[in-house]
Design a protein that fits this description.
The structure is a single chain. By secondary structure, the chain is mainly alpha-helical. The chain is built from 8 helices and no strands. The chain has one domain: Methane Monooxygenase Hydroxylase, Chain G, domain 1, CATH 1.20.58. The chain is elongated, with a radius of gyration of 21 Å.
Length: about 160
Amino acid sequence: MGEAGSIATHLHEATAAKPEIRFAGYSQDALKEFVEAHLVLAFLADRPVPSIAAIGVEPAAYLNGMAEAASELRRAILDGLRRGETARGEALLHIMDDVYSNLLTVDFPDAVTGGLRRTTDALRAVLERTRGDITAALRQDQLVSAMRELERKLGERVSG
């Protein structure tokens, strides 16, 4: 992260007088990835989310990076579900939902936000699929618990 931060700072300094490069898609995409890395780390490590100023990027790159970071949580949730970590999955889903809800409140033209509406729509699809996966895992956990309880009761009847 330190090396990426140095590169981001260098990018800002080198393009300060060249807005056509600074705000070009490729520059903003690189900064969006930088934000995404910061936020995924904060989300997964349960740390405070760094601010725009702390990361040192433009708002559009920050918001798009936030949406991408929330989408990346799906991978961590699915990996956790494979290990039986449904509570952790629910906590991460809550973060995804909060990010999505906050991004919905941003009402500026796409030219200003760097295509945030499209990115937010993609996050919504990922969020809903993830919600379905967690729901299925929770229901499966409930079924397993009910089956164990039934086994226990049947075992008591047989031995009693």
